[in-house]
Specification:
alpha+beta; 2 helices; globular
Length: about 100
């Protein structure tokens, strides 16, 4: 699914996420990474709590944009709530949460 260049860039994204001071740390769902219809690589993270984290969403959107400028790989980090049995993925879209399928 991902070529070698994309896998290396994804590794950089993982390192960035690990280095951020969020507690508890969001967990990367490596098995659920996929390419969206517009070509971006969707990277789901699992978070604790009852709602998505706006601060995490804004930070990761900024970091993903920086990584895009460095590598040419476009990533979208989505959030999934730990106890959501529907496994909905959320992304912040300017002023509201959108669900990604």
């Amino acid at each position: 699914m991902l070529d070698q260049h994309e896998r290396l860039a994804l590794g950089q994204l993982f390192q960035i996420l690990e280095g951020e001071p969020f507690e508890p740390k969001p967990l990367l769902d490596e098995q659920a990474i996929y390419r969206g219809p517009d070509g971006q690589i969707i990277v789901p993270v699992v978070i604790k709590g009852s709602q998505p984290s706006l601060s995490l969403a804004l930070l990761m959107a900024h970091k993903a944009e920086q990584l895009y400028k460095q590598t040419g790989c476009r990533f979208m980090v989505t959030q999934r709530l730990e106890h959501d049995t529907d496994k909905k993925q959320f992304v912040w879209a300017h002023d509201t949460w959108e669900t990604i399928h």
